[in-house]
Write a structure and sequence with these properties.
Layout lengths: L2 H28 L8 E3 L6 E3 L4 E3 L2 E3 L2 H6 L6
Antiparallel strand pairs: 1-2, 3-4
The structure holds zinc ion.
The site of zinc ion (ZN) has 8 residues, from loops.
């Protein structure tokens, strides 16, 4: 195995590593960001909580069934 072959082999390895890194970067950048929780505000106590934990009573959101029964309250 001569020196030219060794250089070609080294270039191939370097190129492969470069391509692999580039592919990894691209796949990392194309991954969607982690889903952001939609925060809603309780219409009664105005506490913010994730939408999936809130109780919906259109057009209002509540943090608990107790506050849902008490209804919306003006922020003071
Ligand atoms: Zn509340």
């Amino acid at each position: 195995m001569g020196l030219p072959r060794l250089i070609i082999l080294a270039l191939l390895v370097a190129g492969g590593v470069w391509l692999w890194r580039r592919f990894n970067q691209r796949s990392n950048s194309s991954t969607p960001p982690s889903p952001v929780q939609t925060m809603v505000c309780c219409a009664h106590c105005h506490v913010h909580l994730p939408q999936d934990r809130a109780l919906a009573d259109s057009p209002y959101w509540y943090c608990s069934s107790q506050h849902q029964q008490q209804g919306p309250k003006a922020r003071d």
